[in-house]
Fold:
Amino acid sequence: MTDFPLGTILGYPRIGRRRELKRAVEAHWAGKIDESELRERAAELRRTARARLVELGLDEASAIPESFSFYDQVLDAALAVGALPERFAGHREQDGSIGLAAEFAAARGDGENAPLEMTKWFDTNYHYLVPEIGPDTVFAAQPARYADLVAEAAADGVATRPVVVGPVTLLALAKAADGAGAAFRPLDRLADLLPAYLEILSALRAAGAEWVQLDEPALVSETLEVSPAEVARAVAEAYAVLGASEHRPQLLVAAPYGAPSIAGWEALVGTPVEAIGLDLVRGGVPAVVDGVEEKTIVAGVVDARNIWRGDLDRAWALLEQTSGLKPARVAVGTSNSLQHVPHDVADEPDLDPRLKAWLAFADQKIGEVSVLARGLREGRPAVEAAFRDAAVALADRRSAPGVHDDRVRARTRALAPADFERGPVDQRVSAQRDALALPPLPTTTIGSFPQTGDIRRARAAHDRGELTTPAYEQVLRDEVERVIRLQEELGLDVLVHGEPERNDMVQYFAENLDGFAVTRNGWVQSYGSRATRPSILWGDVSRPAPITVRWATYAQSLTSKPVKGMLTGPVTILAWSFVRDDQPLGETARQVALALRDEIADLEQAGIGVIQVDEPALRELLPLCARARGAYLEWSVGSFRLATANARPATQIHTHLCYSEFGTVVEAIAALDADVTSIEAARSRDELFEALAGYERGIGPGVWDIHSPRVPSAAEIGGRIDRAVAAVGVDRVWVNPDCGLKTRQYDETVASLANLVAATGDAREALLARA
Structure:
């Protein structure tokens, strides 16, 4: 047995510095490379990452986490215990094992077989695949997906620490399989699941792993269907069994994203595990409990959720407080996996050098871990120079021009309650009915249309200076007209311009607002092969000029049907950016909201009568701690209302939400006071309909899961329309996809939208027949 390394991280970005994994996986899906070549490319990516981590100072045995996944870490854990839904059984290998074909089928769907539901990973913008567990699910360990990576690293001379989603979190995040019965909960299967985890641990030890990391973020969340007390009892049961095994590596159980409940902390300390990882950035140092003196505490003092250079003095103080628990050993760690931040600030040649000095991406975070670990090993004087450099950067950030703008702050100080209130709903409904004259069950899409290779190539050529601005804008105008004509031909009622000018729904606004910077290579995995480049919100926010008006008015000039103006809401702009941490989020949200308020006024002045303000991240940022939710909902809902409250009664305000569990925030969705809300429903098996019963505003539960290449039939869509009408009434239902169409291909899009319009037509005829 070996001591836990003095410095470590809980995970590392797995997509590659230039999204190499994305390109390889999508080439495989397109049939351009076979599985063997895909695996070879992935292996080379892993080797490169391990070498980089050793170079950065993670050179102790087990300091490097083996956190690779082809698609999703939760899916990996489910498949490693054999929990593949029966509808994908035909994709198993001949020997019954679960390989990449089955993995990708479960993630993306297969013909008429819908994929696993996808939703947000705790309060992050990462999306995981929701396991389906039933009373009859057969658990059978398939440890090769983890053990092979340990052996691969060992062959290269690197002793890694495999990372596996823990059994309690796996079941707490799972949903009951169809037909399981109302009383069944996946956590009921814990005792049945543990033998599979024991077999996985045994195989990892045989492969050479001295430590294994089991991630249990369920310990810190109060948003799950199971209570913190139930999680605590399950943790005590699970780790009593796993810890008692004689055929296992040493165990690090990590509780990232916040503070574990008191009961959860006590339960975990009471088990035979050797090390516990805590998020001290968000959770703080817990109380002393009996048994902690036998544990190594991996103190998560380096913030792995943002990109700001760390306050090393504060981190050191947290390490000293952790030492006060009198554990067997204190090690330095990150608060959670670094999968939520980009690779390296050095990859950003376009950023202002002064701003770069304030930043720390994944590689710089590892540098902070190494400095603090050296301080523990040799004493703080040995690293005092690094502490001084960090303090100088923090002071410079506080005093730099643009961080504080007196004009912006004066405007937020002057806000009054009336600035957050719109006119009476009944007056708006009447005015919008007269202005828009829409049929029952109006059809629309969420905003974006497929971004073709031609558009991406034109944008890249324009960025390189190889295509003039007039020529580039003509490409965009041609695409807008194509999208408008396509929607007219299909028969949609409220149109969109397709957003070809937008590289990303947040970055586009960041590029046009003061107080933001954008990156060139700051990629972060969103789900599967999809990655985003979160913008950096570093200063006070204002709008120097209109952003969307030109494209919306051009699109509206091409058709007599209403065209939606498309904005990204203040909460989502914050959630999908790296936001300054030197003031309350509510203050920053109000600044963004005022910029959007000005944009809405300009859209109205230009004749746009339908304006959508997307807030897909509203549920995402809901705090995991229940007592913090009230304050969050107050500023998040308030910022949306501030942005939209000044709209005229005849202007129909839409919003859009997707890929989260919305049942807990239905009241907040209503409080947004939007006239129409489109919301993800198809991917989550229509579970939202029950929560929407009695909803009094326009609602568009998504009838087509756009994150799968499947084309839903008109009958499938018609069934969803019928369920929506039964839940909220025909006068309120809109028909739309789950989300924007940017990631889809045009053939899928046209076929699916044609089925959507056909199903709506059938539903309207049925309504007339019943009238």
Observations:
- The chain has a mean pLDDT of 95.
- The longest helix spans residues 746-770.
- The two ends are 76 Å apart (CA to CA).
- The chain is about 40% helix and 10% strand.
